[in-house]
Amino acid sequence: MRNSTKMMILIALVLVSIALYLFQGLNGSYDYALPRRGIKVLAMALTGVAIAYSTVIFQTITHNKILTPSVMGLDSLYMLIQTVIYFFFGSMSILVINKNINFAISVIGMIVFALLLYKFLFKAGKRPIYFLLLVGIILGTFMGSITTFLQVLIDPNEFTSLQNKLFASFNNVNGDLVWLALVIITLTVIYGWRSIRELDVLSLGRDNAINLGVDYDKIVKKMLVLSSILIATSTALVGPITFFGLIVANLSYQFFNTFKHSTLIIGASLMSLVALIGGQWIVERIFTFDTTLSVIINFIGGVYFIYLLLKESRTKS
Amino acid sequence: MIQVKEVSKYFAKKPVVDNVSVNIQSGKITSFIGPNGAGKSTLLSMVSRLLDADTGEVLLDKSDVRKWKSNDFSKRISILKQSNYMNVRLTIRELVAFGRFPYSKGRLNAEDEKMVDQAIEYMNLGDLEDSYLDELSGGQRQRAFIAMVIAQDTEYILLDEPLNNLDMKHSVQIMKILRKLVEDLGKTVVIVLHDINFASVYSDFIVALKDGRVIKDGPTHEIINSDALKEIYDMDIPIQEMNSCRICVYFNS
Ligand SMILES: Nc1ncnc2c1ncn2[C@@H]1O[C@H](COP(=O)(O)OP(=O)(O)OP(=O)(O)O)[C@@H](O)[C@H]1O
Ligand SMILES: [Mg+2]
After folding, report:
1. Which of B17, B32, B41, B50 most suits a substitution to test ligand 1, by most atoms within 8 Å of the C-beta?
2. Predicted-complex ipTM score
3. Cα–Cα distance between B136 and B252 in angstroms, integer?
4. N or C: which end of chain A has fewer CB within 10 A?
């Protein structure tokens, strides 16, 4: 099967999922339910693209196909920010109730954290990228510990309300924020798309990339920043589901079998759209909300991750 | 011209390349020889900007290689490393086409395609061009990488042990191709070799490194003699003249 055919199939699947989600069981509620469903579809599409795109570029610059950008600690920071807000200001504070403010704090917090981290680490001289990852993991664990500590002390009722924010969910996305996220994510993706062919060269490894005239340090920094912006935006919008990126990125590598990032990224994005929108449809209409999509995603993702690890260890030995 | 000026590189405070100065003559083949761990690869990496020198500088056309714009530089100097690990699956043709990246930025025009064809032809890989690299023998893969560097069409070509994994026939073939690139197209080739007989027969100049220092540097005939080789390798190597080639008989010394 040619890659263009595969792409067509995916596009068809995306359209089917969207149509099912939007129109199935609508019962003529065009004014009320349809716009609400539309906003949710848009939120899922944005999240799907942001996570697929950032995971693929992150895996390319780290030369590792079983990492996700969450190792840089952004998810942990998001949880810490939310927990700190609940701990110090409570669930009734303006920082929680006003979703715009909450979104702004989360996005800005994560992006500033990422920029400071990269600036600090790149300033400290040329280090292998694994050093950066290691620092990210350590900081992430550290923030995770503080979060747990605060959560233990928090009022149980507050904690239940906090928990809703810490699981990815499309059920109560805010309309205004979706449009804001649309702007941020579109601009970031367009800006990043100009370097798409340099990413192809990057997959030949650092030395070959430099030999072929790619400004390696510059592009790595640029891609780290781009992927952080995307992760920050989608996490602040629906909660942390970065793990999901691992699945779609690897499915895309397997399915398309090419080095071209334009194909890989579009493919991974379409797959995430199918999985998120189709998955949400199943959760809402078939399981009638008896479970949440993020639980299913984490379960499938976990199984797939183990499969990848086994496969890698078999090819390496 | 490439000038290496008092360049040093330290790993863990230990000098691996120690105050090295050499000039690479344009339009010639210069071989780097020396024992394992002498610093040959490290030096080549600094010339090609894969590594930064700790002290000293490398000049290309009188300006520091670190000041060159990446893309301009990649049209002047190409390097093939000693080992190449990649985690993507490519066919030979796709790999060789990457050699055109400095010019085409990934959108190959007719001229680029022609260069790719030519490079594949040069390396005798026509039959295999659609095979995946991970399905090739070590020598075929090595030739594919050399083809990529040839497609890059730079004035300076740096090759770190390109004869690794190659059989005699292909080794000779590649050395002849390099000779031809120098003679016909005026390229400059810098090559790391372990087989000193190839260095002796094909190079114009030889630079010998040992413990991070240049211990010999000169035209081939000045280096290929028993005294100089004794200094470089600590071996007594008799030399035989055959058809006006100097052959080092090192197998039982
Ligand atoms: N990244 C590194 N970190 C630490 N030490 C290094 C590194 N790269 C090289 N070295 C050390 O520097 C010395 C020179 O290495 P280099 O690869 O330049 O040798 P070489 O002359 O190319 O040897 P060979 O003929 O075996 O390829 C070696 O002792 C090696 O252990
Ligand atoms: Mg070496």
Report:
1. B41
2. 0.90
3. 34
4. C
